[in-house]
Every structure is written in C-alpha cells, then in structure tokens.
Amino acid sequence: MVTVSSLFVFSTIILFLAVAKQGLGIPDDDHVRRCSENEPPIRFPFQFYESQLDYKRYHYPGFNISCAKNGVPILGLPTLKAEFYIQDIDYASQEIHVYDNPDYCLLGLLLSENGSRPMEFPFEFKYDRLKKYTSYTVFNCSSSRYRLYYNSPHIQFCGLKLVPSNFEISENNFEECTKMYDTESIPDNIYNDYVTLTWSKPDCRSCEANRKGCRFKKDSDDEVECFRRKRGKDEYFLLI
After folding, report:
1. Parallel, antiparallel, or unpaired for β 194-198 and 178-182?
2. 3 state DSSP class of 205
3. 145 with 225, same domain?
C-alpha cells in the first residue's frame, strides 16, 4: 500500500534529480540558455557549466561556456586555465566570435607551431580571402634590454615578440632573444583582440538548415542526429 510519506519521499527524489540536472548544466535537447537577455544562445554542442565538477560530469572537449558576473558568456578551457569572452555564435555556419579577456592572452593561445592546436581546442581560424594573413617568427626576449626592434605595433604580445617571417631580422637587435618557432598564417584582425573561429565537429549544419535540433546519437559521443523540437519556440534560462 502506498502511503502519503512514501509518495512524499518519491516526489522529493524526483524534484531533486530534476534540479540537479538543471544545475549541472547537462544539456536538455529542448532548452536554449542565455547568460543574459541580449547575449547569444547556448545550445548544442556547447554546454553550460559552473565548476570543474560540472565539466567532469558532462563535456564535449572545448565547448564549455560559463557566465561572467556581468552576464557575458565565456568560452572556457579548463585544462588550459583560459577563458575568452563570446561576442556571438552562428550555429548555421558553425562560427564563434570571441574577444580577449584581460586576464588571459588570446594570441598566446591561438598561436601555434606548425599548425598544431592546444589540447581540447576544437576550433580553427576562419580564413577569408579578403582579409590579410601573416606568418610570424616568435621570439622570447624576456631577458633583453631592448623594448622595440623595428617599427611595428604588433611586435609585443603577452610577453612575446612577433616578427613577420619575411622581415629581415638583424642579429644585433635579437642577440639577447631566443627564437621559439614560426607560426602558420594567422588573420591580422587578431590584433584587435577579437577573432572568428570555426568548428567542423560535431557537424550540425544540416540540422540547422532544416530548423531542427541537433544532438548526439544514443551511446555515441561523435555521431549526431537531427530531431524535431517539442516546443514551438525556444525557452531561455537567464543565467545571471
């Protein structure tokens, strides 16, 4: 016989699980979240998290978003201890526009040797034939007494000295510096402290084109499927 007390306990457990799921940032296929009213929506493949515990419980590497105290969404890379502000997310073209957080160094994270990318960083630069790209030689001049080596506003970022690879380097000017590596071509607009990144996996573009939701297939962490949303419109949870 079902008693009132047993029903109460059962209901409490169900309520606790529902709240826990919501609080842990585990994606709900039918819900779209925002950090504040005018900020971009947070939905698959991105997931919201509040702590390292959330990150460990559910994560698709590199797609972790949290909210700053001022309501701005942040792209977080817990393994690299780096966070960058998000300006916009275009799910149809799979692009994310990020700009620099004063506490970190966007350029330092995105610079790479021989095209390699940091671990758990699934994004690439968006290449636009109308924009200018430059390859650089990166020097560590931390012990040097010189501050500037040639007339360029782009020479010093995050404790590094950058020299265009086609620039004739004077050994006298760089004798106290250590060459680190040559970079791939990177967009010059990175020096405005913002950049457009793209992702190719998971690929939800066909779902977006058909105005459907996207999610991983059951028992898979790389294959996706489209689904028809149950609700007629998105519901937003303001995470402030």
Report:
1. unpaired
2. helix
3. no
Q: Tell me, yes or no, whether 120 and 148 share the same domain.
A: no
With contact defined as beta carbons under 8 Å apart, do 84 and 127 qualify? no
Range of the domain at 65: 28-126+187-229
Query: Same domain for 118 and 36?
Result: yes
- What is the number of domains present in the chain? 2
**What's the confidence (pLDDT) of residue 151?**
38
Mean pLDDT of 83-88: 89
Q: Are residues 116 and 213 in the same domain?
A: yes
CA quadruple 52, 56, 57, 59: dihedral, nearest 10: 100
pLDDT at 95 over 70: yes
pLDDT of residue 226: 96
Q: What is the DSSP string of 52-92?
A: HHHHHHS--TT-EEEE-TTS-EEEEETTTTEEEEEEEEETT
d(CA 50, CA 59): 12
| Average pLDDT score, the chain | 70
- 43: which 2 tokens? 């939905």
Residue matched to tokens 């650089």: 136
**pLDDT for 214:** 93
Residues 205 and 112 in one domain: yes
pTM, full prediction: 0.67
- As given in the structure block, the two tokens for residue 183 are 């970079």
Q: What is the spatial distance between Cα 186 and Cα 108, in angstroms, rounded to a whole number?
A: 12
Range scoring the smallest mean pLDDT among 88-92, 117-121, 196-200: 117-121
